[in-house]
Every structure is written in C-alpha cells, then in structure tokens.
Amino acid sequence: xxxxxxxxxxxxxxxxxxxxxxxxxxxxxxxxxxxxxxxxxxxxxxxxxxxxxxxxxxxxxxxxxxxxxxxxxxxxxxxxxxxxxxxxxxxxxxxxxxxxxxxxxxxxxxxxxxxxxxxxxxxxxxxxxxxxxxxxxxxxxxxxxxxxxxxxxxxxxxxxxxxxxxxxxxxxxxxxxxxxxxxxxxxxxxxxxxxxxxxxxxxxxxxxxxxxxxxxxxxxxxxxxxxxxxxxxxxxxxxxxxxxxxxxxxxxxxxxxxxxxxxxxxxxxxxxxxxxxxxxxxxxxxxxxxxxxxxxxxxxxxxxxxxxxxxxxxxxxxxxxxxxxxxxxxxxxxxxxxxxxxxxxxxxxxxxxxxxxxxxxxxxxxxxxxxxxxxxxxxxxxxxxxxxxxxxxxxxxxxxxxxxxxxxxxxxxxxxxxxxxxxxxxxxxxxxxxxxxxxxxxxxxxxxxxxxxxxxxxxxxxxxxxxxxxxxxxxxxxxxxxxxxxxxxxxxxxxxxxxxxxxxxxxxxxxxxxxxx
Length: 517
Known about the structure:
The structure is a single chain. A two-stranded antiparallel sheet has the order 1-2. It starts with 17 loop residues before the first strand and ends with a strand. The chain has a single domain (18-220, 230-513), classed as Growth Hormone, Chain: A (Up-down Bundle), CATH 1.20.1250.20. The longest helix has 34 residues, at 429-462. It is built from 23 helices and 2 strands. Helix content is 74%, strand content 1%. The protein is globular, with a radius of gyration of 22 Å. Residues 3-29, 223-229 and 495-517 have low confidence and may be disordered. The chain is mainly α and 517 residues long. α6 crosses α21 and α18 runs antiparallel to α20 (399-421).
C-alpha cells in the first residue's frame, strides 16, 4: 500500500514532544516558496558534491602523491583517512551551528574554508603539510555538508521536498561512485607527476564560482538572540570524542589500528553514554542541546531511517575499494579503466535517485524496500559471474548487474533521506541531517574495513582474486539484507495507520521539539 512520506508510517502529532513553533505561527497555507529555490539547490549541491567527492577521488592519485612527495606509507594513509576522520567528526556540530547561526552564514564560511584548504592541499610541498591540509579540508567539508539537508528542509515543502532530496541522493550516490573515474581523468589530463595536485586544485575555480552564486542567492536568516547560550560546547566535545574513538581505529585499520586501538571502542561507549546523560540534563535545565535525544526516540521514522542509512553504507561504500583492487591488481586495469568499469552503478543511481525523489511522497518505504532488493540482487549476480566467466570478460559481464544495483541504490539513498527527515522540525534540520550523515560516514569506514579485509584474506588464503571478489560481494549483500530487514520493519510498522495528508506534512515540518522537558 502506498504511504505518505510525511510521517514515516505515523500520523502527525503522535509525538508528545512536538509543539507548534511560536516564532513562525505558520501553516502550509502561509508558506511562500522562494522563487530562486531550485537555483539555490543547484549551487549548494554543487558545493556538497565537491566535499563528498573528495572522500574517494584522491584514492587513484595516491601512487603519484607518494612518488611526488617521497611520502611514507603511513603518511599516504592519512591523506585518505585524515579527511574521512575530520569530515565525520564535525557533521553533527556543523548541523547545529547551521541551525543556530543561520545556514547561509555557515554555508559561506564552510565553502570558503573548503576552497582555501583545497588550494593548500594542491600546493603542499611536503607530506606533513598535505596531511594537515587534508585534515582541515575534512573539517570544512563536514561543516558544509549538513547545510544542504537543512536548506532543503527550509526551502521546500510537500512533494517538492521529495524531489529536492532525490537530487541530493543522486549527488551522494554519484559523488561516491564517480570519484575514481574523475580522478583517473584528471591524472590522464595533467600527467602522473603533477596530476595529483589538480585533484585538489580543481575544487578552487568551481568553489569560487559556487561561493559567488551562493552569496547572491542564499536567503538571509539572521539568528535571534545570543550565540553562546545556544551552543552546547560540552555536548560537542563528548559526541566528537565518541565519534573519534569509533572512526580512528577504523581509518587506521591498514596500519594495525584495529589491533592496537581496539580499546577506543570501549571509550566510545563511555563517552556516548556520558553524551546522552548530558543531553538529558541540558534539556531538563531548559537549555538547547546539541542533539536532543528525543529526535531519535520520539520522531517517527528517524531512528529506523538512520539505521538503514548506516547499515546500507557499510555494504554500499565498501565495494568501491574492492573493485579498484580487483580490476587493477587482478586484471591490470589503469585507474581510469577501473573507474569506468563501475560507472554503470553511478549512472543507474543518478537516474533512479532523481525519479525516486518524485515518487517518495506517494510510495514511501516501498521504494526503499524495492531498492534494497535490487542492490542485493545486482551484487549477488556480480558475485556469481566472478567465478563463472573468464577474467578478461568480467568487466563487460558485470555492466548490467552493476546497473541494476545502481538503480536500486538510487532508490535507497534519496527516499530514505526524505523519509528519515520528513518528521524533523525545520528548526533542527541541520543537526538531524548531520547526525544522519555521521551514521553514513561510520558505515562507510566500517564497510570499507570489513570488505577490504575479507578481500585481502581470501586472496592470501586462496590466491584467487575472483573468489575474493565473490566473497566480498556476498558480504556486501549481507549488509544490504540487514538494511532490508530494518526497512521491512519500518514498512510493517506503518500499516494500518492513517496516511498523513500533504497539508499535514507541511504543518509538521514547522514543528520543533519542546526543549523545556
């Protein structure tokens, strides 16, 4: 049965923690759409695309970086992992700062910092300066990314919001999958010796153009009242410490991080518990928390949607390193050829995400379930073909199943984002989007470690790259099936409940969580 995206299976008003926003006194009838909203979205998604792209585009340039700077293996690892670490570390705080200071202000600050740090990375004369630039670049990207989801919540209502999140989902999917292709193209165009610098420099002209357009187009949203009382510094430190303790062993896995830093997972649990306790105390005292935990416990569909995103990214994001290792080490593909081999997934994801965004307001969780089924089916076929066709035909044979998996992937990311954030008060859109994407970053790190470790272990034990590829694909399918189980539970929980109207969806987007306890 089709369902509305507005309540994730529940009707508006079920949470007793939501009250009408007294500052807006707004209903759907009072909503005045910004005539520039689609142009604003195009500009902000372009900037967001650069930040997400830099997670993966640098991978194909690592050998050139190592040769050009005489870098150590550990330093090269930190060029990749340092960015991912600081990116994930500040997502929630960046979202909260956008909620408090205004999304326009935070977007311009973060984008300016991203342009500057990209230029610093491209011009880096030594390994140390490159690593430091990448750490700073990750911080700026982490501050920038949650402003996108917040701006979508601010600027769009009803079915249009689904379309906007569809484009956002396409941006996430394409940026994750297309990075190796673009990296290979840049290296081919500028040469192996200096091409790696242009992997970073390419952000500068695009970023400056986006910055100029954003300054002209983004609506002003001046903050009300003093800043300091609304910034939960202890909450930021506790949550940041917990995320750091989870991500650091994962991103350092190739350098033995899981063996030497495993104790940090226990520290993460302690810091997480302290964070929850502090946030409860902050709410009871009537002060704005960093992340009101009732967003997770009492917002319909948020916890389940965040879980789907985290688990799905464990399987989805981890396959790209496996494919790169297989095509380049086993089949002798160049970085560009390796990237082109997985392009069908990116293309399928881009098209289906945009279409799914238009349909999610009517079909809801059915799209997510169908998408996860297609991903599991497509990757299962890749695993079967890996052992059934000659090595020199695998690249061609996997085009169709990767396309199917990509179509499914696009049906997961954008609808799940829309459904997860659909019942979130607009005033908390930034922090909610940041928390959602923090889960995706943790899923990406965990999935990459698991799938790469499985691929390496099977290769060493069997000596067969095709067997290793098949086993890694089945691991990815396993993560996808877990996400499918959560999605089916979400769908089942919505049966028999009244379908929220589009007017109610518009009204619910104006609600805020009562912070008085």
